[in-house]
């Protein structure tokens, strides 16, 4: 049999169900962010944007008349996207520090860039997507199988 009960399915690759739920929520939040980003981009592209000054009160009249105040939303998207990249590079700190302590700065730098050039972070994203898709299909349809 290739059928697994849910508890055995969740502990097949890693020992904790929270790992799989975390992958699922990460994928769902990224999909929601991309959907929001596409809608906001389309809306901002087709709208008349206001001249924005963050130091003015929000009760002031916005110019030009009939405009939409999307600049705070655009600023939020920029901050959110920047925070994703910051967290991405924070994830490399343990491996770089370990390599730095054991072998020195040259080998740590070399390993960091080799890690990036090999596109192994993309593989981790791919495996996370596979894990979350299999968990989602098991929760909606049932019948978990070995991947």
UniProtKB/TrEMBL annotation:
A GO cellular component annotated for this chain's UniProt record is:
1,3-beta-D-glucan synthase complex
TM regions (residue ranges): 24-45, 80-101
Alphabetic keyword roster? Membrane, Transmembrane, Transmembrane helix
Q: Supply one GO molecular-function term.
A: 1,3-beta-D-glucan synthase activity
Q: Domain named Glycosyl transferase: which ranges?
A: 1-147
Q: Which domain of life is it from?
A: Eukaryota
Q: Name one GO biological process term.
A: (1->3)-beta-D-glucan biosynthetic process
Output the PANTHER family linked to this UniProt entry: 1,3-BETA-GLUCAN SYNTHASE COMPONENT FKS1-RELATED, LYST-INTERACTING PROTEIN LIP5 DOPAMINE RESPONSIVE PROTEIN DRG-1
Name of the featured protein: 1,3-beta-D-glucan synthase
The source organism is Kluyveromyces marxianus (Yeast)
Q: What is the lineage of its organism?
A: Eukaryota, Fungi, Dikarya, Ascomycota, Saccharomycotina
């Amino acid at each position: 049999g290739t059928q697994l009960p849910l508890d055995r399915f969740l502990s097949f690759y890693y020992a904790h169900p929270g790992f799989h739920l975390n992958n699922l929520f990460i994928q769902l939040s990224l999909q929601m962010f991309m959907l929001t980003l596409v809608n906001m981009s389309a809306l901002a592209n087709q709208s008349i944007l206001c001249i924005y000054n963050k130091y003015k009160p929000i009760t002031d009249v916005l110019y030009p008349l009939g405009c939409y105040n999307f600049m705070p939303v655009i600023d939020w998207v920029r901050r959110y996207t920047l925070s994703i990249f910051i967290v991405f590079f924070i994830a490399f700190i343990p491996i770089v520090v370990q390599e730095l302590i054991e072998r020195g700065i040259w080998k740590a730098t070399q390993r960091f860039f080799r890690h990036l050039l090999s596109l192994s972070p993309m593989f981790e994203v791919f495996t996370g997507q596979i894990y979350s898709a299999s968990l989602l299909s098991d929760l909606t349809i049932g019948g978990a199988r070995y991947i």
